[in-house]
Design goal:
Layout: H1 2-16, E1 19-20, E2 23-24, E3 34-39, E4 42-47, E5 49-51, E6 56-63, E7 84-87, E8 97-98, E9 106-107, E10 114-119, E11 129-135, E12 148-149, H2 151-154, E13 159-163, H3 168-172, E14 174-177, E15 180-181, H4 184-199, E16 205-215, H5 217-227, E17 236-240, H6 254-265, H7 272-281, H8 284-291, H9 301-309, H10 335-340, E18 348-353, H11 358-362, H12 366-375, H13 379-393, H14 402-405, H15 411-416, H16 426-453, E19 459-464, H17 473-476, E20 511-512, H18 526-544, H19 549-555, H20 557-567, E21 576-580, E22 584-588, H21 592-598, H22 602-606, H23 608-619, H24 627-640, H25 652-655, H26 668-674, E23 686-687
Parallel strand pairs: 4-7, 11-13, 11-16, 16-17, 17-18, 18-19, 19-21
Antiparallel strand pairs: 1-2, 3-4, 5-6, 6-10, 8-9, 10-13, 12-20, 14-15, 21-22, 22-23
Helix pairs in contact: 6-8, 9-13, 13-16, 23-24
The structure holds 2-acetamido-2-deoxy-beta-D-glucopyranose (NAG) (2 copies).
Length: about 700
């Protein structure tokens, strides 16, 4: 019934709006990109751009909140309603951030709380289109809506709304006190969602079907919003390469960062009120420059791990139930705590690219890592894997039983055991860094988020594995270390880590736009076009509704087949995931043994699939110990780990010394280098979309 009501609103509203601000407005062409709204006591006329070739409509630079300047800096946003006449043809400036190309400079403007809309059709009597509300990535510190074009989604009857939000300390400064309770950047996004609820009907949208989607830190933000009672208008969440359990999702100690800002700007640390008064008087550039230390000459292992985890600088925090002013929080609980609660959740689609960190490892951090591998004894084993273990251990809910067992599992051995050959190259070593960081910082959080989310709602996992020629991550994520274009192309990247890196999937969903909002263009191969069609179709289908019976009927079998078959696994274990390569296929056992190691999954580690691998690693020290026996011991340890922490019979740190040489490792070495998809037995894949071009047509 609701859509009929909306149509009535839209139809009856029109004649009344022919007069705006007292001046007669010229009647629009029947098909022009002109919108009339009437709401909250204001009427407005908004003119955008129609793309005649593809038949979609874009509206740029619509302000959804008052400029957060002056006394409003660090405060929650104030809604702005549509009023008067407006040309929505130019994007807003980005929110203040470092210039990615000249890091000592600051770009952007504080008056940046704008959104862009790409709509397939103007309001009519038919049902409105579902909406994808997209939150760009950039570690809560960089990025804008500029590059993300919505023409492909619009071809699948789906609206794209992209919104800017405050970044860095301007968006997240928090002293843990009511003066600066933090998360105002998230509240910006929340306000944009309220705007969508109000206004998207006038743009031909359906406010009852709005998924919130993000990438990187934007994906973490999207999941925080979808988990919050305040974000309940979302009907689904699509989290690309970021999750509620990602190490970069939540800053554990925002007050410490506020202290750093105080030191770097010369403002008083306490009381919080004085800090804020002082910071409000500074030009925003000073605050942006104080936000992070860009000195890459000083990179050490900690800084490397912080950068690839996206956890440096200011970011979202857990507010607690009460901010002492009685205002509702957005993030009341730590994500791990929320996920434990028995509550209904909207469907979640999350996933990774298959080589998230490869570009950073072989590019920006190549020199540093090469140096470490060559000069620091046991760098991979101790500094890298040890450091990663600390990172993931700090994320609540990521590793069950973390303190008891985790350090005793042979994780480090797994990533180093075929490097003991004298002949291993630097590229091999870097490949291990890429593999270990990808597993710990991206694959594990994605997997665990799906597992925990599914206690209250449907959750789907994908892995994007297509290496193509469309724009790369740096186009969308300038300034993000993981996406930075590599200047060092001389090194041959080993095959198993050649997959797409962080952000490389974005051009397979969005049309990359240049800084003027024009498509970058260029040749698109038929393979790339097909992959893009599949991925856009996946997102559009998800937005159209995986649960809504009407949606299923409307979209035919495609939705039902895809999402249902992802959930129903023959063995009932729900280990399936969607592999997005040249074709889309359903695959199973995503990084099975590696995630078993990182996540302390006893059943995996001692089961048949991982037996060979683990038996070898555990059998190394006690040369007489039978793998079976060790496995039995391990099962006992792990099954007790919830209550007690007993030591495993094997200390991984000893194992390297006593290695009987590579021969003793049997097949494990070959497995490591050849089999990106991780299970010992070959993956069984059934192509589900042979020539899937027609499948996503609505
Ligand atoms: C590029 O790779 C080569 C070979 O490993 C290395 O010597 C050089 O320092 C690297 N350059 C940068 C900028 O990382
Ligand atoms: C990318 O471009 C190269 C060179 O034109 C071509 O050989 C290759 O097939 C393209 N890859 C895809 C996935 O289209």
């Amino acid at each position: 019934m609701w859509h009929i009501a909306l149509v009535l609103v839209a139809l009856t509203a029109r004649p009344a709006q022919a007069v705006v601000g007292g001046e007669p407005a010229s009647p629009p062409e029947p098909d022009a990109a002109v919108i009339f709204t009437q709401l909250h006591g204001f009427s407005a006329r908004i003119e955008g751009i129609k793309d005649d070739r593809l038949g979609y409509y874009s509206f740029f630079g619509i302000r959804y909140a008052e400029p957060p300047v002056g006394p409003r800096r660090f405060q929650r946003p104030v809604r702005q309603y549509l009023a008067g006449e407006m040309m929505a043809v130019n994007q807003c400036l980005p929110c203040p951030q470092r210039d990615p190309y000249y890091p000592q400079r600051v770009i952007g403007h504080e008056d940046c709380l704008c959104l862009n809309i790409y709509a397939p059709k103007m309001p009519a009597e038919e049902q409105g289109s579902p909406v994808v509300f997209f939150i760009h990535g950039g570690n809560y510190m960089t990025g804008s809506t500029a590059a993300y074009g919505g023409q492909h989604l619009s071809q699948k009857d789906t609206i794209l709304v992209t919104a800017q939000y405050r970044l860095g300390s301007l968006g997240y400064l928090s002293t843990n006190q009511k003066d600066a309770s933090g998360n105002v950047g998230l509240f910006d996004l929340h306000t944009a969602m309220l705007w969508i609820q109000d206004y998207i009907q006038f743009f031909g949208g359906d406010p009852k079907r709005v998924i919130v989607m993000g990438q990187g830190s934007g994906a973490s933000a999207a999941s925080l919003l979808a988990m919050s009672p305040e974000g309940r208008s979302a009907t689904g969440v699509a989290a690309l390469s970021g999750t509620p359990l990602s190490p970069g999702a939540i800053r554990p100690d925002p007050a410490k960062h506020a202290d750093t800002i105080a030191e770097r700007t010369g403002c008083p640390k306490t009381p919080a009120e004085s800090l804020l008064i002082c910071l409000r008087q500074l030009p925003h550039e000073k605050i942006v420059l104080a936000d992070n230390d860009m000195n890459m000459d000083m990179v050490d292992t900690q800084k490397f791990l912080d950068e690839v985890s996206g956890r440096s600088g200011a970011g979202a925090r857990v507010e607690g139930e009460d901010d002492l002013r009685g205002l509702p929080p957005l993030v009341a609980d730590a994500p791990a705590e929320s996920l434990k609660k028995k509550q209904k959740r909207v469907p979640m689609l999350t996933g990774v690219t298959s080589a998230e960190t490869s570009r950073a490892v072989f590019g920006k951090f190549n020199k540093f890592l090469t140096n470490q591998i060559q000069n620091v004894k046991d760098f991979l084993k101790k500094d890298l894997v040890g450091g990663l273990q600390n990172v993931v251990k700090d994320v609540g809910g990521l590793i069950p039983f973390a303190s008891q067992v985790q350090t005793l599992l042979p994780i480090a051995d797994y990533y180093t055991n075929n490097l003991l050959e004298k002949s291993f190259t630097i590229a091999d070593g870097l490949a291990k860094v890429a593999e270990a960081t990808g597993d710990a910082l991206f694959n594990l959080p994605a997997y665990q988020s799906v597992q925990q989310w599914s206690s209250g709602g449907k959750a789907f996992l994908y892995s994007f594995e297509h290496v193509g020629n469309l724009s790369k991550g740096w186009h969308f994520l300038p300034g993000v270390p993981l996406a930075e274009k590599s200047e060092n192309s001389s090194m041959q990247v080993p095959q198993n880590v050649q997959g797409p890196s962080h952000g490389d999937e974005l051009a397979y969903i969005f049309e990359p736009l240049d800084s003027d909002g024009k498509p970058v263009g260029g040749e698109v191969s038929s393979t790339d076009a097909r992959v893009r069609d599949n991925f856009v179709g996946l997102i559009a289908n998800f937005a159209h509704g995986v649960e809504d019976e009407a949606g299923k009927k409307k979209n035919g079998a495609a939705n039902k087949n895809l999402f249902d078959s992802l959930l129903s696994s023959p063995d009932g274990k729900n280990n399936q995931f969607l592999k997005i390569g040249n074709e889309m296929t359903i695959s199973k056992d995503f990084r099975f043994c590696q995630l078993g190691l990182w996540g302390n999954m006893a059943d995996r580690l001692t089961g048949d699939v991982c037996k060979n691998l683990l038996g070898n690693l555990l059998g190394i020290t006690g040369s007489l110990a039978k793998p079976d026996k060790v496995a039995q011991g391990l099962t006992n340890q792990l099954t007790q780990a919830g209550n007690v922490g007993q030591l495993l019979p094997v200390q991984s740190s000893q194992s390297q010394n006593q290695l009987p040489g590579l021969g003793g490792l049997g097949g494990a070495g070959g497995f490591l280098s050849n089999n990106r998809q991780s299970s010992i037995r070959p993956q069984k894949q059934k192509p589900i979309f042979p020539g899937s071009d027609g499948l996503f047509d609505f």
